[in-house]
Amino acid sequence: MQYHCEDAKIKRKVEFIIAYCICTSRRAHLKECFDVLKKEVPSIEDKKTSNLNILRSALKHIQVRENSCISF
User: Fold this and answer.
1) Which of 1, 46, 65, 67 is the most exposed, having the fewest neighbouring CB atoms within 10 Å of its CB?
2) 56: domain range?
3) Measuring CA to CA, which residue among 31, 54, 34 is closest to residue 43?
4) How many domains does the chain contain in total?
5) Which CATH number goes with the domain that contains 48?
């Protein structure tokens, strides 16, 4: 029975490490996506801009571009 308990502890540690790696990878990918989006939106000048402000600025930029296309 003691081996079963040790195996369960090891399994939980391995599962935690896998979940941590997946989460870290996902956060890194999201950061990269926000960095790309930030470069595409001309109105963002501040280097330390929150992801929420990046999304808001991107939305405004898209709306302005759509309105300028409609007016032609």
Assistant:
1) 1
2) 2-71
3) 54
4) 1
5) 4.10.280
| CB neighbours of residue 67 within 10 Å | 9
Confirm if 41 and 59 have CB atoms less than 8 A apart: no
On whether the CB atoms of residues 58 and 41 are closer than 8 A, the answer is yes
Write out the chain's pLDDT in tens, 72 residues: 456 778 889 999 999 999 999 999 999 999 999 999 999 998 887 778 999 999 999 999 999 988 888 765
In the numeric block, the tokens 């571009």 are attached to: 65
Contact predicate 43/61, CB 8 Å: yes
Tokens 């000048």 -> residue? 45
